[in-house]
Amino acid sequence: MDKPVDGRDARIGAPGQRDETSAAAIASAAADVALILDVHGVVRDVRLNAADPHLEQCLAWLGRAWAETVTAESRPRVEEMLAEAREHGVSRRAQVDHPLPDAPDLAVAYTALRLDREGTIMAVGRDLGEHARLQRQLVEAQQALERDYTSMRQMETRYRLLFELSDDAVMVIDANTMKIMEANSAALQLLGVEARVMAATVFPLGLDPAGQLAASDYLATVRAVGRADPVRVSLSADGRSALLSAALVRQESSNVFLVRLRPAARESAATSSANARLSELIGEVPDAFVVTDLAGRVLTANAAFLDLAQLATEEQVRGRSVAEWIGRPGADLEVLLAALREHGVVRLFSTAARGQYGSSGEVELSAVAALKGAEPCIGLVLRDIGRRLSGGPQGARDLTRAVEQLTGLVGRVSLRDLVRDTVGLVERHLIEAALELTRDNRTSAAEVLGVSRQSLYVKLRRYDLGGASSHTQVH
Fold it and tell me: What's residue 367's pLDDT?
């Protein structure tokens, strides 16, 4: 319970008890609550801070035995404190819980003091509500970390299994030293090298001289530009042709090559098998995956996306706009498609998802545009972040601090003025958020906010949000 700004406190109780009242006033200055109890343990006076939100609810304590104002589990502790105070003058500190109507129990750590020979007792306490709130936050943070750690371990296990089960020879190579860091069983078999020999061996190996030269030139190109079309090389053991492809990946503070060698004889069959295996894996992954055309119409989706959309079969989503289930109306899909056309990829795009029958939640979206080929398409992966612990965006924290500052004016400014200023503050914040979400597209911002463009322009001028008089720019 926070102290009031001016240091004053509120007194609840009967007048005429000056000694006890003075003692309670002194105690309440250093504690959150002070109770004056008669020789029978009945509450005769209560002192709380004037700003305490439980002030009204604690009126019911007057005239009742202290033990009757606490929960059943706390009554033995109250009796012990009263007995110790009567016998020794002061009791040990103990926590008791006061039940409150329509609110969580009020946890207070009390110490009981005997004031006079007649047996008057004063109980001074410290509110433990903030301590309990911090403990809950700590537990939630620990649970979130444990979930993230478990998810990472599971993901690492899945990718390690995929790495070993691949029929293609796959190697991880240090881009600076060209030493082979890891190689799967298919690579050892194709190149005819033992695992102990493969470790820390410089690539290329197992290729004829022409193949080694082609592989070196190919990896140099990938290092320079990031990607290159696969090249054919010949194995030195039997002269078979193989298709070499590689990707440059940033790993911590260094770069590595992911290199794949596929024998040409198995290329067509392996392609069909790999595609079938990949389709099966995508269909079973726990994150929602959906493929759309460039206009956002669904081409295919996995089971997790159907669960998100609350639909049973893929036919129910095919051909419909993905905006029916993803994004805020009039904003997110257009912004996402514009970013994909410009950059080709979007990562960690926060948006909303909703089901066919009213379910909703926050999701994190990553997307990539495949613009080459006969049928350009867009792939989207969605991950539910509704259960993820988050402190909230910076804008929300700024708004919370501003509202807290207005709350501090209670008692010094009229309620009408406080409500007016709070509504204006929230309205300005939401307009700024809508403009940021739509990249300053005022037509889309008005649609997101559910107001007309004319109303939006009036509010932009009212809050001096720059450029309010200019015409709407349609992106």
Answer: 87
Per the CB < 8 A criterion, the answer to whether 366 and 288 are in contact is: no
Tokens coding 54: 């439980």
DSSP-assigned letters across all residues of 266-332: GHHHHHHHHHHHHHHHHHH-SSEEEEE-TTSBEEEE-HHHHHHHT-S-GGGTTTSBGGGTBS-TTTH
Whole-angstrom Cα distance, residue 174 to residue 219? Answer: 11
CATH number of 394-462: 1.10.10
- Which CATH number describes the domain made up of 285-384? 3.30.450.20
Topology of domain 166-266 in CATH is: Beta-Lactamase (3.30.450)
Does the structure show a pLDDT above 50 at 236?
A: yes
The predicted pLDDT at position 251 comes to: 77
Domain boundaries 9-127, CATH class = alpha beta
Residue 162 CA to residue 274 CA, distance in Å, equals 11
pTM confidence score: 0.33
C-alpha distances in angstroms, 122 versus 24, 56, 257, 270? 7, 21, 74, 84
Query: ∠ at Cα 7 (120, 81), nearest 5°?
Result: 25
Give the pLDDT band (50/70/90) at residue 14: very low
pLDDT (tens digit per residue) in 285-315 = 788 888 888 888 888 888 888 888 888 888 8
Residues forming beta bridges with residue 122, ordered by sequence position: 36, 113
